[in-house]
């Protein structure tokens, strides 16, 4: 019988991108916890996908915002990455996993910030939100969580999706803001990525031939 450290290491090796990313987040979280006040604010705003940065240097902030967490605690991300991102990476493979996550991250960012821009333009939100702090991995995580629903057998799939829609829907209804809009958008975008979960016919045939 193998020891539990060996089983944990085998699990980590099965999802290298997930845990490499998590390791980077651990480093940046340590940096974040050792930085305070205005210096921390400026550090995070520099990598924020806010309206100003999306208009001036979108590629830079869309990438760098993924390497900071929105908060000071890394442990919850260890749990969420292990329960959502790691199984999805093993199932989809690294390329499709990355594709789904980045699609959700980019589109949900532009949807949420685009609606915020319209709200500011119509004087429904303060202009200072053009430079709002907006970093984190949540849109990527929620998008991949959405597509992971197709891996869950029915009827548990509907329970999983029902819980997700209740959670993000309640957040949206109770406090309509760009983050809540982004999370709901990411969930729907992930569900729209269903075609990426399907194996190509030639790969299915090749797999069938190899099993004969």
Automatic annotation (TrEMBL):
It comes from the Bacteria. Keywords: Membrane, Transmembrane, Transmembrane helix. InterPro entries: Rhomboid_2 (IPR046862). The chain crosses the membrane at residues 59-85, 97-120, 135-153, 158-174. It holds the Pfam family Rhomboid_2. This is Rhomboid-like protein.
């Amino acid at each position: 019988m193998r020891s539990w450290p060996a089983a944990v290491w085998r699990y980590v090796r099965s999802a290298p991108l997930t845990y490499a990313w998590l390791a980077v987040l651990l480093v940046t979280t340590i940096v974040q916890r050792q930085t305070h006040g205005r210096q921390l604010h400026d550090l995070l705003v520099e990598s924020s996908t806010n309206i100003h940065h999306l208009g001036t240097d979108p590629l830079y902030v869309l990438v760098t915002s993924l390497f900071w967490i929105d908060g000071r605690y890394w442990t919850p991300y260890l749990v969420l990455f292990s329960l959502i991102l790691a199984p999805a990476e093993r199932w989809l493979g690294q390329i499709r996993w990355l594709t789904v996550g980045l699609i959700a991250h980019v589109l949900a960012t532009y949807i949420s910030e685009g609606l915020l821009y319209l709200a500011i333009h119509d004087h429904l939100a303060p202009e200072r939100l053009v430079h709002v702090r907006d970093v984190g991995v949540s849109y990527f995580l929620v998008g991949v969580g959405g597509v992971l629903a197709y891996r869950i057998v029915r009827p548990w799939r509907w329970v999983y999706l029902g819980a997700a829609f209740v959670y993000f829907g309640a957040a949206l209804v109770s406090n309509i803001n760009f983050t809540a809009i982004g999370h709901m958008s990411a969930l729907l975008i992930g569900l729209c990525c269903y075609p990426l979960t399907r194996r190509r016919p030639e790969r299915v045939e090749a797999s069938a031939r190899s099993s004969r």
